């Protein structure tokens, strides 16, 4: 007899497996993957038991889910032992409802029952047993309670040979039953549901008659059938929970009490908005700007000291200019913003390590679903506030290919650390006392555009697509100081390393192009330089949202394709470098950038926020999209959106400026 042990991650499954098998077990790898494969013999029996990977559903999108589904469908399992966390019945029963559709007897091992009373929870076990028509045994794997009773029930076969209880509404059940009759498979009900959900791995079972039945029922729901099935499962589970589980608020955990506020359907979004506003206000507003002075003073002192040394060493004029006006001006203008980045990274790292961000991903899942995304996409967006490259790479955790592609294309819209210098420079000079508000507004603007763009893409490019999202919410934890420090250090070090390599090379290039004419004459006017000639070729593109044919601004924006930080670096070099780049006083008072107004400044920030990302992010996009044609379409889409938004912002802002 073969027994499969199935359950959620962190449900105590491995502990139970060890208790059931003792030393009668062996460990290897599943064929083709490095995931552990654990097999054993249940004590006092000759029954084989297999510990399947921990999963939250049988959606068969991830490798863990595929292993579990394939084993249950193909390996002639006689009994499923479904281990459930008694303190989280609602979450655990989602998987149970799917297991019951396999026509394999299911015995539920309700684990952690010793914690139920401690948490102030009262459970009507008999009601759940009758409702699911399956045998339930109360155990505690950690305290070794009820294990022998479980072995006895498995050995004797004295458990309910459960008959599946219908959980969907009448029309959907009728469709499932019709589909079952058209599918020749031992697990026809499970296969039928996968076909109706539109799962790609089961499309071989889709016939014209089945497809016609599915199309006939769609108008009734006005939503994707996969999402309907998910909602119906949870409706059924919530009814069981409401009738069988009671708890006292006095015994609620601290996490549950906090979640009552944090995940409140009316308060969750305003709280999230206030938190993110506070983060950007602290990092990019007046408080963060104050920290820049110290770095600016150091760079100013270095520039003066090195300038004096170069004169003593009789360095040529062009060598002095290269070092002072090129390298130090370019790299130094970016390093000025390191204190603000430290504040930003520190606050976001604290939010992640407390468990708050997981809850925001959960809460925003419903909003993202309407746009063809899920809460999974929020993780790359959060990482993207640091750097777009690892954020794009993190989309590998998104198992749905369509959602992954959309997330890869939209992640660069998030204001990353490289864009913060641009935002801080312009917000600090043009909006002064409101710099924090302006900086935060760009973050929320980015989120809104991401959702709107995803919605349009879903309607035009990815019709009838949706994604599901199951997430375990961890308990709130006090952030580990060592983890936060390490996380912030790694992000800041990566930023400084980039400033010391890419920004260095780009700054030297800008200095070279602005110092020489096309005939390689040195010491000419900037307007006669190679850089000016290149900028004039592209200045028409930027005129609609700058209000000026500025070759200087055009070149700076184009430099953002190399690295977004280079926008500020280029502006500093072109304007003659300001040791006070946090306020931008010399940059914007210079003839090169004196045309900027509040409207064009905000529009310029918008363009650099949404335009095609730096070379590093483009490379990451190429790897994840896997198609050069798709990559170029994505870059064109990003830049097109950036141009349209910047133009709209400028035209509206300019009109307001004229009227005022």
Give a description of the structure.
This protein is of the alpha/beta class and 660 residues long. The chain contains 29 helices and 9 strands. The chain has helices at residues 13-21, 63-74, 89-99, 125-132, 147-156, 170-181, 188-197, 208-221, 225-244, 254-262, 268-284, 286-290, 292-312, 317-335, 338-354, 356-369, 378-383, 388-393, 401-410, 420-430, 435-460, 481-515, 530-546, 551-559, 566-575, 585-589, 598-610, 615-625, 628-659; strands at residues 2-7, 25-29, 36-41, 48-51, 79-85, 106-111, 121-123, 135-138, 245-247. The strands form 2 sheets. A 7-stranded mixed β-sheet has the order 2-3-4-1-5-6-8, with helices on both faces. Strands 7-9 form a two-stranded antiparallel sheet. Strand 5, helix 3 and strand 6 form a beta-alpha-beta unit. Helix 6 (170-181) packs across helix 7 (188-197), helix 11 runs antiparallel to helix 15 (338-354) and helix 22 crosses helix 25 (566-575). The N and C termini lie far apart (83 Å).
Task: State the gist of this model.
The chain is of the alpha/beta class and 660 residues long.
Low-pLDDT windows of residues? 577-583
Supply the helix-strand structural class: alpha/beta
The major beta sheet can be summarized as: 7 strands, mixed
- Rg, rounded, reads 30 Å
**Number of helical regions:** 29
User: On the 0-100 scale, what is the average pLDDT?
Assistant: 81
Strand content: 5-15%
**Overall 3D shape:** elongated
Number of strands: 9
Q: Give the N-terminus to C-terminus distance in angstroms.
A: 83 Å
Helix content: 55-70%
What order do the strands of the largest sheet run in, or round the barrel if closed?
2-3-4-1-5-6-8
């Amino acid at each position: 007899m073969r027994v499969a042990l199935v359950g959620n991650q962190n449900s105590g499954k491995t502990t139970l497996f060890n208790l059931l098998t003792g030393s009668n077990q062996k460990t290897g790898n599943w064929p083709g993957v490095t995931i552990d494969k654990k097999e054993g013999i249940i004590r006092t029996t000759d029954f084989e038991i297999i510990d399947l990977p921990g999963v939250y559903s049988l959606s068969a999108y991830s490798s863990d889910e595929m292993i579990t589904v394939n084993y249950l469908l193909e390996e002639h399992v006689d009994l499923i032992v479904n281990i459930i966390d008694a303190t989280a019945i609602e979450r655990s029963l989602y998987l149970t409802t799917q297991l019951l559709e396999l026509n394999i007897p299911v015995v539920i091992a309700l684990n952690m029952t010793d914690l139920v009373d401690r948490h102030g929870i009262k459970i009507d076990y008999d009601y759940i047993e009758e409702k699911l028509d399956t045998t339930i045994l109360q155990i505690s794997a950690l305290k070794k309670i009820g294990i022998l009773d479980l072995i006895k029930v498995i050995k004797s076969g004295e458990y309910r040979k459960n008959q599946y209880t219908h959980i969907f509404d009448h029309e959907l059940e009728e469709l499932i039953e019709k589909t079952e009759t058209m599918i020749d498979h031992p697990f026809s009900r499970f296969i039928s549901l996968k076909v109706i959900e539109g799962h790609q791995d089961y499309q071989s079972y889709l016939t014209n008659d089945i497809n016609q039945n599915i199309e006939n029922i769609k108008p009734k729901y006005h939503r994707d059938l996969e999402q309907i099935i998910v909602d119906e499962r949870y409706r059924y589970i919530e009814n069981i929970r409401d009738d069988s589980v009671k708890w006292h608020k006095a015994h609620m955990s601290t996490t549950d009490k906090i979640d009552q506020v944090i995940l409140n359907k009316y308060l969750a979004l305003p709280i999230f908005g206030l938190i993110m506003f506070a983060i950007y206000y602290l990092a990019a507003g007046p408080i963060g700007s104050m920290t820049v002075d110290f770095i600016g003073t150091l760079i100013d002192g270095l520039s003066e000291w090195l300038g004096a040394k170069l004169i003593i060493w009789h360095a040529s004029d062009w060598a002095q200019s290269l070092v002072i006006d090129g390298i130090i001006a370019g790299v130094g203008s970016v390093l000025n913003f390191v204190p603000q980045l430290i504040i930003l990274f520190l606050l976001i790292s604290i939010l992640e390590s407390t468990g708050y961000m997981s809850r925001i991903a959960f809460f925003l899942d419903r909003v993202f679903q309407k746009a063809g995304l899920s809460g999974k996409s929020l993780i790359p967006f959060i990482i993207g506030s640091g750097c777009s490259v690892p954020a794009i790479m993190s989309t590998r955790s998104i198992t749905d290919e369509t959602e992954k592609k959309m997330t890869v294309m939209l992640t660069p819209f998030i204001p990353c650390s490289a864009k913060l210098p641009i935002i801080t420079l312009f917000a600090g000079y043009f909006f002064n006392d409101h710099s924090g508000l302006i900086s935060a507004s760009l973050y929320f603007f980015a989120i809104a555009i991401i959702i709107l763009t995803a919605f349009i893409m879903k309607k035009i490019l990815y019709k009838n697509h949706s994604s599901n999202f199951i997430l375990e919410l961890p308990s709130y934890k006090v952030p580990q100081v060592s983890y936060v420090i390490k996380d912030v250090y790694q992000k800041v070090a990566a930023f400084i390393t980039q400033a010391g390599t890419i920004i260095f090379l780009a700054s030297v290039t800008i200095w070279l192009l602005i110092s020489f004419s096309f005939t390689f004459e040195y010491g000419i006017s900037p307007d006669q330089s190679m850089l000016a000639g290149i900028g004039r070729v592209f200045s028409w593109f930027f005129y609609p949202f700058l209000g000026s044919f500025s070759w200087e601004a055009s070149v700076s924006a184009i430099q953002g394709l190399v690295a977004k930080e280079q926008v500020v670096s280029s502006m500093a070099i072109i304007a003659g470098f300001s040791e006070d780049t946090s306020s931008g006083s010399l940059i914007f008072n210079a003839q090169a950038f004196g045309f900027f107004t509040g409207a064009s400044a905000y529009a310029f920030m918008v363009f650099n926020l949404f335009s095609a990302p730096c070379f590093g992010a483009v490379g990451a996009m190429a790897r994840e999209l896997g198609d050069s044609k798709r990559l170029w379409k994505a870059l064109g889409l990003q830049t097109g959106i950036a141009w349209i938004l910047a133009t709209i912002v400028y035209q509206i802002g300019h009109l307001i400026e004229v009227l005022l």
